[in-house]
Design brief:
183 residues
């Protein structure tokens, strides 16, 4: 049986080897934290207790404290999972890609999309047009904090201001209104 000082010495040497390997991998500038956390007082003999009478090597299990008492042990599997079990679990019906039957062409651009979901290509066109309108509004106002508190109306080429648009901020675009950008 290994005595306590030899156990502490071998543990210290092991930790120094781990630390030197980590320094080789990460470089000397990296701050390293502790790699093993143990309860220190359980490793050292207690001074306030008197040694047992008789053989010092034969101690009862209740009085023996060591390194293994202070480490939190994690659960380990009892048996190895076979390849068949692993593959069956990974290829479960619920994890497979489902075939979608609600796909149809977009009426505006013709790309495939799901029913009741906005077409991604049409959304991208609307997003670009909206970004251009926002840029034009920003140029008109001169900054984001100078926006009026009135509603904004976008008029395209060939459109005129209606009676409902009186008193609103007008943004005029010098192009024909896209079919997908309704008024």
């Amino acid at each position: 049986m290994m005595n306590l000082s030899a156990l502490v010495h071998s543990l210290r040497c092991s930790l120094l080897r781990i630390e030197s390997r980590l320094l080789q991998i990460t470089g000397p500038e990296t701050q390293l934290g502790p790699c093993v956390a143990v309860n220190g007082p359980s490793l050292l003999p207690r001074i306030d207790q008197e040694p047992l009478q008789g053989d010092d090597e034969e101690q009862s299990p209740e009085q023996t404290s060591g390194l293994l008492d202070s480490i939190l042990w994690m659960a380990a599997p009892k048996k190895r999972r076979t390849i068949e079990v692993n593959r069956t679990r990974r290829r479960d019906e619920r994890k497979l890609i489902k075939v979608k039957s609600n796909i149809e062409p977009c009426p505006e651009c013709g790309h495939l999309k799901q029913n009741h979901i906005l077409c991604g290509f049409c959304y991208e066109k609307v997003h670009r047009e909206t970004a251009l309108i926002r840029g034009q509004i920003k140029a008109m106002e001169g900054g984001p904090l100078r926006a009026p508190t009135v509603e904004t109306v976008v008029l395209y080429e060939g459109e005129t201001q209606s009676e409902q648009d009186r008193g609103k901020r007008i943004v005029e675009r010098s192009r024909k209104r896209p079919a997908w950008f309704s008024y």
